[in-house]
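Suppose you are handed only these lines of text.
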Amino acid sequence: MNNATAVIVAIQAPEKAKSRLANALIPYHRRTLVTAMLTDFLEALRSVHSGPIIIVTDSDNYQDIASQTDAIVVEDSGSGFNQAAIAGIEFAANNTEADSILVFPGDIPQASSNDISDLIASLQASRKDAVTLVASKDGGTTGLGLHIPTTYQTQFGLESALKHREQATLLGMGVNEMILSSLEIDIDTIDDLEQVQNIVGKHTASALEIILFEKHLAERRSFRGLQGPPLTQEEIESLIRLGLKAPAPHHSTPWRFVIVGSESRPVLAGEMGAKWKQDLLGDGVPEAQINKALANSSARILSAPTLLLGCLVQEGLNTYADSERASAEWGLAQHSIGAALENILLAAHVRNYGAYWISAPLYAGDKVRAALRLEHEWIPQALIALGRKNSDYKPFDRPELDINDYLIWRE
Ligand SMILES: Cc1cc2nc3c(=O)[nH]c(=O)nc-3n(C[C@H](O)[C@H](O)[C@H](O)COP(=O)(O)O)c2cc1C
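From them, the structure of the protein bound to flavin mononucleotide can be written out as follows.
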């Protein structure tokens, strides 16, 4: 076991770490990312370093990672990187047999084990009165090595590489400077993350996947400004395949889909419109108002570059004699087609197609079935209009909701 070097990793609590990422990330994502970055670094480090690893932190969030990588957690007050480094150096001097220390930040998930290993070897081979320094491209410090005991005061913060060199000169110490490609970037912003996303370790890669996936979920909007060309058969089929992955009751597969071509659309729009008009007249809505609404709705159906109809069939569903359970069972099937259509809307969003839901078929099932010559068992549910995004269109504002109006907790 090589105990000559103690490695100190200073990391703040997730809610404080990476403050420049805070605006771009919700707290859950920030915690996930910070924890993943530390895990990748510790795993890379542990694979080449059998000596002491000391995590200096003001949080109990890292206990699990510490025990998985056989690291020691030293608590500090969270008052800054330099204070954490001092606490780590003190701990290493008093509690380990190490005669040198290496200080790292906890946010270098792209650090390769080869680079870490070279750095440790170089530190151990360096003169006792030299500082070993790895600078990042932006003038920060991604690795600092010292022989202990030492009077050297670490200078982490803005322009720290320069300050570390100056501090060495002031104390008459040499600088053993290393350029290590995987340690050239320290991650402060989303742009930094994008630069290293292909070389980060697996935990950070998976945290980034989660963040990106959920960003897509949060950003999907109904996009009604559509233009051609229509989706190709391959594009459509690949979307439908995702629809077919929706959860469904009792392992059933009750969804059916129709791509409605331009020939069928005038009849479809006319039939649904006639039914709607009849309903609205019954409600006492003025005819001029009805005609305007019908014209809008018809134009959307006729002009959608691609028009997809989602239907349900009874196949695989339970049958009940009483209406309460029969209606609940149909409710299950409708939940499932909703899930299938949402899969399609989300995939359309990720692919940067425009897409939105049209609920009219639910009010005019018989007319839709007749207009499209569908089998009797197919019960129309909703249309999804799809196309390329017209850049002039801006989705409606959708203000952030207060979760407390939508979520309660019960013991
Ligand atoms: C069941 C259902 C029915 C909908 N019906 C229509 C519709 O007939 N026409 C339409 O333009 N949008 C329709 N929408 C889209 C909603 O208006 C839209 O999802 C909602 O305003 C939230 O906006 P967003 O999708 O942009 O986030 C429907 C959505 C759902 C889930």
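What can we learn from it? The pocket of flavin mononucleotide is lined by residues 221-222, 224, 356-360, 395, 398 (CB under 6 Å). Residues 223-389 form a domain with the NADH Oxidase fold (CATH 3.40.109.10).
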